[in-house]
Specification:
Metallo-beta-lactamase, Chain A, MBL_Glyoxalase_II, alpha/beta, 213 residues, 5 helices, metal ion binding, zinc, 14 strands, MBL fold metallo-hydrolase
């Protein structure tokens, strides 16, 4: 699997394009600049299969409809945030003055629980990692040693929990029980900032030190 990180929008959220040897592609968190993401898809001659959302905050969903409509793609989102795409108050765009209100059509596929997914030639696990938001999930591609953690875990930091539905203790618990149990060499591809590894965050992340289950 190959992947490309594309920081987009005013908060520079990371959108990702993943593709395999058959040029099939998945899009994760197209937060803005859908046309730019589509150009990357065109330049690499890819065939998109689906859009996966780690959560439904505005900076991760703003480009969804551009890409969904262009490629006729299903959008996957956890059921705990199924109403957020259409509601600027819940997806946060109504709170931040630097962005216009964002409303996106409902998700096509609802993630109801942790599960193993196969889409085209891709296979991955979905882990529920709430705390930053109630429907936050992480996508673990075991065969490729990579986890897309959304805004749960960052290089040297963790997601904010002061937005509606956020819960600090729940987030710390999610990180320890769902992410830090992965192999230490697992690449962590976050919703903002650079890549890191599970081992690196276990060692140096100041927000995770001293926590016990």
């Amino acid at each position: 699997m190959e992947w490309k990180q594309i920081p987009v929008g005013p908060i520079q959220a990371n959108a990702y394009i993943l593709w395999n040897n058959q040029k099939e592609a998945l899009i994760i968190d197209p937060g803005a600049e859908g046309t730019r993401i589509a150009e990357e898809i065109k330049q690499n001659d890819l065939k998109p299969l689906a859009i996966l959302l780690t959560h439904a905050h505005f900076d991760h969903i703003g480009g969804v409809d551009v890409l969904r409509d262009r490629y006729n793609l299903p959008v996957y989102l956890h059921q705990n945030e199924r109403d957020w795409l259409e509601d600027p108050a819940q997806n946060g765009s109504a709170i931040f003055p630097m962005v216009e209100d964002i409303a996106v059509k409902p998700a096509d596929k609802t993630i109801e629980k942790e599960s193993f997914y196969e889409i085209g030639g891709f296979s991955f696990d979905v882990y529920e990692t709430p705390g930053h938001s109630p429907g936050s999930v992480s996508f673990h591609f075991k065969d490729d040693n990579a986890v897309f953690s959304g805004d749960a875990l960052f290089a040297g930091s963790i997601g904010r929990t002061d937005l509606p539905g956020g819960n600090h203790d729940q987030l710390i618990n999610s990180i320890h029980k769902k992410l830090l149990v992965l192999p230490e060499e697992t690449l962590v591809l976050s919703g903002h900032g650079p890549e890191t590894t599970i081992g690196q965050e276990m060692e140096v992340n100041p927000f995770l030190n001293g926590f016990s289950l």
